[in-house]
């Protein structure tokens, strides 16, 4: 039986980060403006009413400022008693007169404070919550919560079982579309609930020893294609996100894309053992009485009302289960085991293209596969390294909380499109008689399946539709299958050649990965990266990265690998047989990448597989 779980989360921000600037336009900032506070409280009541009218329970994430407001406190208590809403505590909404007076700062992102201040603020906010309600919360959250922060909260306040802990792909793309002013750099995390490790919030725990003690949920459920290609703040299951993206009918004020997005999240149960998840996390700033963007208040109201009604109708039809955050945490702990991945075979529902992506995340990696590029891996994050990435004032990463990539097509070009250099990608080329074709140029579609491994785990399999390669004097088909074996920290890619117009011909298959490391568009120093061709378990060729454009080849190589000490990661390719040539390539200053690959001559009906493996390197 399939289950679609939804969290509806509201936060009574008294001084929303957006409303103060809009409502108070032309005035000197007043952090205690009673007009803004009153309007925000009214909008919070409206949001709660719209959820309840549609039979939906909510989680009320109290903000620090709301803990000083008797009306907000009374509303939360009333709705808890009447509707079963959970009263939680968010670390968003810190700015208020009391906070400014005490901490003498305009900072409001909890993960950006020094660790000393994080502890002071958490203690202050949680104890104030206890003074007001007589108990400690079971849920908390922010746009992002770093591992040290989560570990401290869980240690001091063990009642917390669930937290909003990241915002999917809220990184440089969002930063640029906010006029280079939105310093929430959080790329590289899961898009669906997970149990964060004690070492790094983005990297899921692989076992009980790594378990931080909470279940994490994302801040909004994003469109896993449109968000990656563009600004995620326009493409999520938050009705006003869709309005900001201008994805609605300006005459009728209808927005079918929103319903399609919810439905696509419902469909993810096909890839996750009958379970799917969706969330909506909303503050009052989005429904400002003066409107937002080009949208008047009436449209903002209608979008939220219609969104709640859609969820409510699904619940009435028995197609949706509404839970509070802590209820969901209990459900998730029973439903999932540590190494079980989250999978999403996602299609374009916005632009009218035929594009299809596959997303995979487990405790060892996050990977994205693009069927518009022949099944190329376009995003790869080595969670296996469990990078201890400290964030905030006093660390090396004051704002930058992203989990580093080895492959990222948006920040490192992806398939070659320029006159020189290469971009990061994992694909294959085929050559014959002086001609070459890259599967990145071949559009196809994938079909998802699973097979049991016999030990309680499964292998998730993508079977791609065959593509035809036509050279001058030779044509054939090639089919790709990609295997994600649970717990293996590897991806096996299998290529099968068939239907050759000349059955006696051989083509060269070149399996390659172009990689680097980083979190933004800007290149990081590659000194220290070591490339190796191994044979019979020993290094046959080695290149210490010096931007000198060197290459090395080894017939019958067991493995080709790159050690990237900056992110404590080793990535390698290994072949299904050693009747092939392994190679390594060093980049140069204009193209600061590395390349790992295998070349093999292959004929009609033959199959060749390679494994992309990730390891932690100390």
Overview of this protein structure:
The chain is 22% helix and 31% strand. The longest helix has 20 residues, at 34-53. The mean pLDDT is 94. It has two domains: 3-345, TIM Barrel (Alpha-Beta Barrel); 364-616, Beta-galactosidase, Chain A, domain 5. Strands 16, 17, 18, 19, 20, 22, 23, 25, 26 and 29 form a ten-stranded antiparallel β-sheet that branches. A six-stranded antiparallel β-sheet has the order 15-14-21-28-27-24, with no helix packed on it. Strands 1, 2, 3, 7 and 8 form a five-stranded parallel β-sheet that branches.
Spell out the blueprint of helices and strands:
Elements: E1 3-10, H1 19-23, H2 34-53, E2 59-62, H3 70-83, E3 86-89, H4 97-103, H5 115-133, E4 139-141, H6 147-156, E5 162-166, H7 172-177, E6 215-218, H8 226-229, H9 239-244, H10 256-267, E7 275-282, H11 297-316, E8 321-323, H12 325-335, E9 342-347, E10 356-362, E11 365-370, E12 376-381, E13 407-408, E14 425-432, E15 435-438, E16 446-452, E17 458-464, E18 467-471, E19 474-485, E20 490-498, E21 506-515, E22 530-535, E23 538-544, E24 551-555, E25 559-564, E26 569-575, E27 581-588, E28 591-603, E29 607-616
Parallel strand pairs: 1-2, 1-7, 1-8, 2-3, 4-5, 5-6
Antiparallel strand pairs: 9-10, 10-11, 11-12, 12-13, 14-15, 14-21, 16-17, 17-19, 18-19, 19-20, 20-29, 21-28, 22-23, 22-25, 24-27, 25-26, 26-29, 27-28
Helix pairs in contact: 2-3, 2-11, 5-6
């Amino acid at each position: 039986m399939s289950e679609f779980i939804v969290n509806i989360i509201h936060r009574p921000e008294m001084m929303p980060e957006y409303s103060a600037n809009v409502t108070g336009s032309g005035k000197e900032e007043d952090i205690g403006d009673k007009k803004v506070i009153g309007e925000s409280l009214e909008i919070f009541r409206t949001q709660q009413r719209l959820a309840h009218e549609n039979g939906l329970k909510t989680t009320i994430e109290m903000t620090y400022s709301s803990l000083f407001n008797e009306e907000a406190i009374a509303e939360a208590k009333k709705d808890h008693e009447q509707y079963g809403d959970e009263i939680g505590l968010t670390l968003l909404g810190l700015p208020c007169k009391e906070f400014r007076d005490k901490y003498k700062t305009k900072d409001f992102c909890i993960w950006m404070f020094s660790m000393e201040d994080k502890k002071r603020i958490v203690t202050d906010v949680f104890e104030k919550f206890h003074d007001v309600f007589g108990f400690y919360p079971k849920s908390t959250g922010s746009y992002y919560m770093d591992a040290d922060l989560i570990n401290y909260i869980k240690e001091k306040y063990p009642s917390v079982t669930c937290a909003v802990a990241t915002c999917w792909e809220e990184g440089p793309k969002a930063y640029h579309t906010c006029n280079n002013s939105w310093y929430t750099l959080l790329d590289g995390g899961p898009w669906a609930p997970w149990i964060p490790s004690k070492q790094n919030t983005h990297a899921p725990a692989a076992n009980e020893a790594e378990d931080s003690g909470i279940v994490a949920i994302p801040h909004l459920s994003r469109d896993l294609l449109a968000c990656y290609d563009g600004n995620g703040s326009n493409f999520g299951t938050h009705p006003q996100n869709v309005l900001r993206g201008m994805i609605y009918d300006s005459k009728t004020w209808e927005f079918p894309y929103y319903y399609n997005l919810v439905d696509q999240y419902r469909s993810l149960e096909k890839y996750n053992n009958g379970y799917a998840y969706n969330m909506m996390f909303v503050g009052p700033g989005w429904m400002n009485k003066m409107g937002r963007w080009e949208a008047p208040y009436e449209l903002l109201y209608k979008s939220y009302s219609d969104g709640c009604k859609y969820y409510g109708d699904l619940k009435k039809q028995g197609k949706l289960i509404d839970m509070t955050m802590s209820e969901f945490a209990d459900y998730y702990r029973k439903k999932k085991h540590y190494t079980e991945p989250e999978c999403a075979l996602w299609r374009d529902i916005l632009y009218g293209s035929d594009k299809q992506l596959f997303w995979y995340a487990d405790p060892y990696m996050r990977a994205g596969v693009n069927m518009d590029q022949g099944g190329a891996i376009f995003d790869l994050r080595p969670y296996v390294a469990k990078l201890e990435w400290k964030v905030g004032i006093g660390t090396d990463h004051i704002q930058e909380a992203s989990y580093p990539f080895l492959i990222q097509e948006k920040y490192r070009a992806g398939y070659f499109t320029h006159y020189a250099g290469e971009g990061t990608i994992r694909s294959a080329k085929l050559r014959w008689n002086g001609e070459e074709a890259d599967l990145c140029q071949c559009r196809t579609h994938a079909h998802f399946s699973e097979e049991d491994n016999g030990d309680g785990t499964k292998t998730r399999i993508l079977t791609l539709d065959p593509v035809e390669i036509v050279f001058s004097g030779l044509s054939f088909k090639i089919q790709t299958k990609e295997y994600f074996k649970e717990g293996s920290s590897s991806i096996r890619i299998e290529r099968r050649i068939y239907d050759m117009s000349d059955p006696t011909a051989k083509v060269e298959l070149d399996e390659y990965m172009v990689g680097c490391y980083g979190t933004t568009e800007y290149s990081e120093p590659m000194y220290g990266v070591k490339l190796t061709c191994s044979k019979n378990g020993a290094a046959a060729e080695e290149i210490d990265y010096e931007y000198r454009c060197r290459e090395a080849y080894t017939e019958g190589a067991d493995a080709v690998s790159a050690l990237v000490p900056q992110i404590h990661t080793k990535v390698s390719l290994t072949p299904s047989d050693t009747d092939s040539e392994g190679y390594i390539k060093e980049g140069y200053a204009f193209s600061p990448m590395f390349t790992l690959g295998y070349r093999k001559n292959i004929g009609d009906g033959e199959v060749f597989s390679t494994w992309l493996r990730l390891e932690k390197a100390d």
